[in-house]
């Protein structure tokens, strides 16, 4: 589920199917490790599913050496909203995880992502 979210190659219906049929845990944190730094960033699936619609490249995805994690955008704002909604309905916590520096609302606001911000406030 995480890899498909990061590559933006999953639909809301596949998110739901992954959660219901394949027992994917939408609330599970996962770690992104920068290979040259041995630095780990703990993130939630919800945070990683939030787009940076204006290519603002917020510092929330910056590693200690200045390198950034850059993800492709979702095909549309509607696709992103549907995936976020499927994750939330499936049990993803809108507040993220205690060990997560880049919680969903922080990512949404830093990315100037109005759709994601509104989805998290519902």
Automatic annotation (TrEMBL):
This is Uncharacterized protein.
